[in-house]
Amino acid sequence: MKTHEEVWNNCLKVIKDNVSLIAFKTWFEPISASKIDGSTLTIQVPSQFFYEYLEEQFLDILRKTLRKELGPDAKLEYNVVMENNIFGGAKPYTVKMPATGKSDIKNKSVSISAENVRESSIKNPFIIPGIRQLDIDPQLNSEYTFDNFVEGECNRLARSAGFAVAKNPGGTAFNPLMIFGGSGLGKTHLAHAIGISVKELFPEKIVLYVTAERFKTQYTEAVRNNSYNDFIHFYQMIDVLLIDDVHEFEGKEKTQDVFFHLFNHLHQNNKQLILTSDKAPIDLQGLEQRLLSRFKWGLTADLQVPDFETRISILNKKLYKDGIEMPSEVVEYIASHITNNVRELEGALISLLAQATLNKKEITIDLARQMIDKFVKNTKREISIDYIQKIVCDYFNMPIESIRSKTRKREIVQARQIAMYFAKGMTKSSLATIGSVIGGKDHATVLHACKTVNNLIETDKRFRVFIEEIDKKLKM
Ligand code: ADP
Ligand code: MG
């Protein structure tokens, strides 16, 4: 007598040779055999959908291999265990399927098959229930087009891969297309651009943009309202699925599990997936390995910080679109001061325009400077005591060790006092901390240093220049 494992392993050997490697990994590796009873083998599958899919696609091969192993009366039973995980507490249930043909039970227990999903009314978690598939709102922002997405060295690969995908969704090697890049570099914009372009080229395709966060909420609500099947069927209809910020899935195991199966379903049916993330796949620590490995099937393209020329083009494009004129020196001033985030670049432009209109001022470089000063100050990193010591020492041309030492040489004492003065004014550190970092002094010494520096600023013109110059360097 063979054990259930042996029987199933023998089946797998044959199946492996008869289906594609991807199909095998997706649909057979997650299965395990759980029981054998006479000529009935029970296998464990992760979802109802899994069972339906096996029956739809692989019935013949399952039947042949099982008969070979267990004789002409061979039967296969499925044990669906995923529902158990999701609804916690609910019992796993079993679907019986005689390996001799399509079972009646299948038709009883599976209410919606792959084809009639498209025609039947499905609960759309985005709008009102009972909406027909053609009415699914893709949730796209019409401003975020390819035309409005300025091309530069920083985004060339991602942009052209996005373009290729839009022209042939599901038909390129870029599936999934994974776009990653820091905040404000255009991931969301590019995802929408792909969706908009697909809709223009293939109006009949069902396109959907959703944030990972929203997907997670919908899933949790579906479980709570007992409408998990509607939820999953809705998503299984999508032709081009855009999921924004998949790093939000980190640490959310159940959502990942659901998404994993959805991913497999869509991918298997040549549906296009586009994912964005603010981390490279390798840095997505909180994602399951099997999901990560899926992400790597397609193409990963990153968005870099735009260079100066591209920043200018982005600003000009926006100005042109809004019909606003601005002196080019002002545009250059903004582009050279806001360097690593397109969202901030746009924010600065908008603030400047607001300033100019509200106060009825002309847009000059001076106005831009005032505005940027404020703008950049608000988003500025906190200056560290170490950085202050370094700037002060550089300014007086002395090694940083001297200021930290106990030396009482006049010029070193003075540099130390200046560093303490700036540390008090520019950091949130306590006097005691400042003292201990700068030369191992106590809080009274720091207080004394600040008084001394303030006095000298009042009385010594040359000293005042020192302070002003260091202040400028620190704020650069
Ligand atoms: P992310 O999703 O990466 O945080 P977004 O896509 O939201 O960034 O982009 C932030 C803002 O910058 C948006 O208003 C977007 O239109 C704009 N933007 C980003 N990259 C470009 C670009 N290459 N050309 C034009 N606008 C851009
Ligand atoms: Mg975004």
- Identify every distinct bound molecule in the structure, by name, code or SMILES: adenosine-5'-diphosphate, magnesium ion
Question: Can you count the beta strands?
Answer: 9
CATH class category name of the largest domain: Alpha Beta
CATH fold assignment of the largest domain: Rossmann fold
Tell me what you see in this structure:
The protein has 476 residues and is an alpha/beta fold. The chain has four domains: 4-116, GMP Synthetase, Chain A, domain 3; 156-303, P-loop containing nucleotide triphosphate hydrolases (Rossmann fold, 3-Layer(aba) Sandwich), CATH 3.40.50.300; 308-378, Orthogonal Bundle (Helicase, Ruva Protein, domain 3); 385-475, DnaA protein, C-terminal DNA-binding domain (Chromosomal Replication Initiator Protein Dnaa, Chain: A, Orthogonal Bundle). It contains 22 helices and nine strands. The protein has helices spanning 4-18, 21-28, 48-70, 82-86, 104-109, 116-119, 156-167, 187-201, 212-224, 228-236, 253-268, 289-295, 308-321, 328-337, 342-358, 365-379, 385-396, 400-404, 410-426, 431-437, 443-459, 461-475; strands spanning 32-37, 40-45, 75-80, 93-98, 177-181, 207-211, 240-244, 272-277, 299-303. Helix 1 crosses helix 3, helix 14 runs parallel beside helix 16 and helix 17 runs antiparallel to helix 19. Magnesium ion binds next to helix 8.
